[in-house]
Amino acid sequence: MTISRRTLLAAGAGAGLLTACGSNTGRGGGGSGPRLSHWYHQYGEPGTERAVQRYATAFREADVSVQWRPGNYDQQTAAALLTDSGPDVFEVDGPTLDQIRGGQVLDLTDLLAGVKDDFNPAVLAPKTHEGRVYGIPQVIDTQLLYYRKSLLRDAGVEPPTTLDALVDAARELTDRKTKGLFLGNDGGAGVLGATPLYAAGFPLVTDDGRVGFDDPAAARTLGKLHRLYADESLLLGAPADWSDPSAFLQGLTAMQWSGLWALPRIKRELGDDFGVLPFPGDGDRGRPAVPVGAYGAAVSARSRHKDLAKAYVKWLWVERTDYQKDFALSYGFHIPARRSLAAEAAPLREGPAADVVRFTVDHGYARPLLWTPAGQTAYQDALSRIIKGGADPERELRSAVRKVAEEIARVRA
Amino acid sequence: MRRRGALWFWVFVGPFAFGLALFTYVPLLWSVGLSFFDAHNTVTPTHFTGLDNYAAMLRDAAFRDSLKTFLLFTAFIVPVTYGFSLALALMVNRVRWARAFFRSVFFLPAACSYVVAALIWKMSLFNGVRFGLANTVLGWFGGDPVAWLSTTDPPWYWLVIVTVRLWLQAGFYMILFLAGLQRIDPALYEAAAVDGARPGWTVLRHITLPQLRGTSVAVLLLLVVNAFQAFDEFYNLLSDARGYPPYARPPLVYLYYTALGQGQNLGLGSAGAVILALVIAAVTVAQARWLRLGRTDGDG
């Protein structure tokens, strides 16, 4: 049978129509009125995507389409904000100061009228610029040190409460089969980031906007991290990285730095044979530290329905506290952003989970808004060279301080 | 009739020419324009900064390190892949039975994605725990597990980066060399044998390699271009959700983080891209001159 060009074109057009009719548009489906697009990064926990689609469907003022986006989400949203085809509402681990100052996101301060004090101030601060709020925190996440009680007991090691004790414990717990500590496959430069600095009493940026770690004591603390690497106490090259507790559960390491989200799985598999700690303090000014962060909801300044998008965010993340609690605790394991919800959540009131909530209140720090990605890259590169290459901490830190100071001056100009 | 031919020419070529202009040349020119502006989080900047972005990029030690990484990688991977694929071709060319099978076996990796291969290398063959394949083999000989991608002294990560690229590319270049080998007139080998040339190195040096000169020039050019484009295996082997270590960071990865990462400094990233393009152009011209590309033997 010969197919003519006309037949081929007609078949193509027909197939296109059928595809259009049957495509999954990702619409929430329940609402009416104007259409809003809401982007989320892909969560690993089963059920989360269905849950956020259910929330979107329940919003009656608009037809909300949920997009669940795998891959480099932050890069995707950053690029999409430059175009008119980006989201109206999007989940963001920020927004960044450049996004705020570039006018890419809307001021959401009025959405928090009357309830602002109920939001955890540690995570609201990095979303606030010159008194205006640009993102509504959804849930709080944190990272902590998990340790295997039985392995520490067998080795006669106490849970470490200082950085020196952590270095010694990691060495004592290392043998041919098990390493003492897992800080990620890069030796900790990526995931620890600023945590050792805060544990030594040095912030990234001071309250008056200067580099907070321009001090030889900060360099000395970072230098101790190289001892972990030099002692061969660190697990490196694990198939799953720090965010996954597999290495800890498989007995490849006696201690692991990981996220709060790993806690239910660790509890399920190890029962009571584990404990949690903040990153231990170091030096005279030191105190324990845990990083806290929050994905939040922001509204694109290019949205065609700005007021409606803001109303939707207020409805979802401020008014519907039942959804916030469901989102935080029914699928994964996070702390609700509103303190009143966190206080009444049963899973967070006992055992290690309660300890973690206490760490976030007593020892939590959030990345300041003046801490830019370029500054972070310079600092992390320095940290990587210190940990793995044994580079001189003072020299490396001086170079990072210079870059961070330049960046702070740029964003404050 | 000629007009009708021109119409069909544009029907077939037009969409591709339009696509090329829209998706290649316009962004290219736009990027060059952006490199002269302060373009944080915008592709339509207003603040002209002249050559500031170029100066900043050239002052940036991380960018200069990335150029060194890339030159080191090119200087190593090009001759190694060339030699390895030529050796494979010579070997497969001499096989008398199951010839198609061996050619297919060596060529098949070329069909594999760089991303997939990098993940297999990272998570299965060269992970750092005792049950990774490479560490299991080391264990048979009493060796301790090696954190292949995390050890900087000695820099074992280069072994992982180079082997994955060799595995992916050698088969493709082997096919090019095979095609070249089959174009060599057998009478040349017969004449050499009559003249007393011993099979092996002498024949290879005085007959095979000179006859493969055209193929070699093409292979070397392709290898250098591919080395310039190195991104996928570096990125997938060494990056994680928190970033990329400062070692073995080629310029494309660095520019990706500068321009498209959270930094979104599109002006600085564009300046880096222009600098990189100029470096590549200079190297390519130098290579073409060295290989006497486009000249016949009669040219002075």
Please characterize this protein's 3D structure.
The complex is a heterodimer of chains A (413) and B (300). Chain A is α/β, with parallel strands linked by helices. Chain A contains 18 helices and 14 strands. Chain A has helices spanning 5-22, 48-58, 73-80, 97-101, 121-124, 149-155, 163-172, 189-192, 195-199, 216-230, 246-249, 263-270, 306-319, 321-329, 339-344, 351-363, 373-389, 393-412; strands at 35-41, 63-69, 89-92, 128-129, 132-133, 136-137, 139-147, 179-182, 253-259, 275-277, 290-293, 296-299, 335-336, 364-365. In chain A, strands 7, 8, 9, 10, 11, 13 and 14 form a seven-stranded mixed beta sheet that branches. A five-stranded mixed beta sheet of chain A has the order 2-1-3-12-6, sandwiched between helices. Chain A has a two-stranded antiparallel sheet with strand order 4-5. In chain A, helix 7 (163-172) runs parallel beside helix 10 (216-230), helix 10 (216-230) crosses helix 17 (373-389) and helix 17 packs antiparallel against helix 18 (393-412). The longest helix of chain A is centred in the last third of the chain and has 20 residues, at 393-412. The N and C termini of chain A lie far apart (72 Å). The relative contact order of chain A is 0.16. Mean pLDDT of chain A is 90; it is low at 11-29. Chain B is built from 13 helices and no strands. In chain B, helix 1 packs across helix 13 (266-290) and helix 5 (114-125) packs across helix 7. Chains A and B meet through helix 3, helix 8 and helix 17 of A and helix 12 of B.
How do the helices and strands line up, and which of them pair or pack?
The complex is a heterodimer of chains A (about 425) and B (about 300).
Chain A (H helix, E strand, L loop, with lengths): L4 H18 L12 E7 L6 H11 L4 E7 L3 H8 L8 E4 L4 H5 L19 H4 L3 E2 L2 E2 L2 E2 L1 E9 L1 H7 L7 H10 L6 E4 L6 H4 L2 H5 L16 H15 L15 H4 L3 E7 L3 H8 L4 E3 L12 E4 L2 E4 L6 H14 L1 H9 L5 E2 L2 H6 L6 H13 E2 L7 H17 L3 H20 L1
Parallel strand pairs in A: 1-2, 1-3, 8-9, 11-14
Antiparallel strand pairs in A: 3-12, 4-5, 6-12, 7-9, 7-10, 7-11, 7-13
Helix pairs in contact in A: 7-10, 10-17, 10-18, 17-18
Chain B lengths: L1 H33 L17 H8 L1 H34 L4 H9 L6 H12 L7 H8 L16 H26 L3 H9 L6 H11 L1 H16 L3 H7 L12 H10 L5 H25 L10
